[in-house]
């Protein structure tokens, strides 16, 4: 476990209480401050969405007075989380949305003195998309805008593979398929494109990145010529600056 932070300060209190007796040293340990939400689609339908779990350990927090409560809050969470300091010192929670999220920790002692500290966690996004035996591929919607309206991602990386599988039912063999990848923004402008030919029994991959993380884009595979059905695998990653 890595040390998250150490905060030791004296908080104002009742008359007659010494400054030293009111201090809480907020020590919280963590395993990571970043992670990746993974979303999997099959034939255009969302199958799984795996959030990022964060775990924070308050066991090294100390106070001149008895500690009664640990907790945290964040706009990324639907509710504030608090635990009884006598019963537990570990808080775990999940974040489902990509973005840079602020987490505020606190500790409360028996005299209701409170110490707080804020940090940021980074949550990126990976989209895995599989579409098989298609003659009219569906568009993959890529929304790089964080739901908390905070810091925009640094860039989006796309890795897309189109396969023209050889099928034993095709008499005389299959045909090549000509197609074009397109990244089309919400203003209906084609921002990037790449045309390719995939022969029967072969596959072709397109790797690209783009830095427009303000607008929503559709990743489209457009048939240009050919009749063979194709398989598509997209891998899209939304990355935030280190």
Index terms:
242 residues, mainly beta, Immunoglobulin-like, Jelly Rolls, 2 domains, nine-stranded mixed β-sheet, five-stranded antiparallel β-sheet, 60% strand, disordered N terminus
Description of the molecule:
- The protein folds into 2 domains: 2-123, Immunoglobulin-like (Sandwich), CATH 2.60.40; 135-239, Sandwich (Jelly Rolls), CATH 2.60.120.
- It has 242 residues and is an all-beta fold.
- It starts with a strand and ends with a strand.
- 0% of the residues lie in helices and 60% in strands.
- Strands 3, 4, 7, 8, 10, 11, 13, 16 and 18 form a 9-stranded mixed sheet that branches. Strands 1, 2, 5, 6 and 9 form a 5-stranded antiparallel sheet that branches.
- The chain is built from no helices and 18 strands.
Blueprint of the fold:
Layout: E1 2-9, E2 24-30, E3 34-42, E4 45-50, E5 52-57, E6 62-63, E7 67-73, E8 81-84, E9 90-95, E10 99-109, E11 114-134, E12 140-142, E13 155-164, E14 177-185, E15 190-198, E16 202-210, E17 217-225, E18 230-239
Parallel strand pairs: 3-11
Antiparallel strand pairs: 1-2, 2-5, 2-6, 3-4, 5-9, 7-8, 7-10, 10-11, 11-18, 12-17, 13-16, 13-18, 14-15, 14-17
